């Protein structure tokens, strides 16, 4: 899977990683041998684990408060007393960390305890807390429904810590609860692309990648999410290739219509038809900003779905000029555009199995102090 775009957990001794005064301590395992110091958590969490409710963890908490100067106020971290055995069984990441040969594993064996500082750029502390509750079988405190934003942050962590099997029951439940409805925006589609990639949801992967390809109006990027580069590159290539071919064909059709009209224009209504079709076509391409200069990759400002819509027969209409001898049906601009669009159906999304088969191993970085 992709790079989490997150700072790895870092180990620290009691002398260098002191817990803030008044910071809550949640004992997920009273006999735990790992202390996880979690940053970026709401400051109104209850001080006692038993008072923690699923509603507090559903992803609706407000962002950290800011001072009058606009800077984020200093926050107290949350400390979790956890079990290395639970962590190692659920997560391949922690399993590797606690093995012999790694500094963290050696410290745990030598001292009987280790402290890790948890910070992630694309996942808040609440998402990490939910993950730890699941791993430590605190199921009654895990929310049954979460927001899309929370699910995205959770997917970042599951990808990073390599623990999809351990959370499958909850991730399936959360996805089923919020996946209904059409994906309307690129940023939503990117969230769903990551979610469907991490949790192997084929239909949602196809839908979200299709939205990104057709709705993005610039070079496609992961926006900092740990989506594999191969997926991003294929979507971007599919977008630019489609636009290149479609715009080339529109230019060819414009030239072809001019030559065709001029060839058959012999006076009367035919002259008017030539001016009508060629003039309307030229004006529409100018209006769409695809005539001159001719757009080039990466086609900034152009969305596939919008260009296809604007080129539809209902939008590309030339005045109907007919006489008793020639109805000019094939000459009409709408007929010409229908012919072009038949060769350019809206591109479909990607198939998940294209990337699952022979997928390279995740690029994980061993935590360092």
Give a structural overview.
A five-stranded mixed β-sheet has the order 1-5-3-4-2. The protein has 369 residues and is mainly alpha-helical. It contains 13 helices and five strands. Among the domains are: 1-11 and 26-41 and 76-141, no CATH class; 242-342, no CATH class. The protein starts with 9 loop residues before the first strand and ends in a 13-residue tail after the last helix. 45% of the residues lie in helices and 6% in strands.
Summary, kept brief:
The protein has helices spanning 84-90, 92-97, 103-111, 125-135, 148-161, 164-178, 186-198, 202-215, 229-264, 269-287, 304-310, 333-342, 353-356; strands at residues 10-12, 25-27, 34-38, 78-82, 114-118.
Q: Mind telling me the C-alpha Rg?
A: 29 Å
By helix and strand content, what is the structural category?
mainly alpha
What is the general shape?
A: elongated
What does the average pLDDT come to?
A: 84
Largest sheet: 5 strands, mixed
Helix content: 40-55%
Order of helical and strand elements: EEEEHHHEHHHHHHHHHH
Distance between the termini: 24 Å
Spatial strand order of the main sheet: 1-5-3-4-2
Are there runs of 5+ residues with pLDDT below 50, and where?
A: 1-6, 13-20, 65-71, 360-369
Helix count from the secondary structure assignment: 13
Estimate the strand proportion: 5-15%
How many beta strands in the DSSP annotation?
5
Region (Disordered): 1-26, 49-77, 346-369
Biased composition (Basic and acidic residues): 354-369
Biased composition (Polar residues): 60-74
Biased composition (Low complexity): 1-16
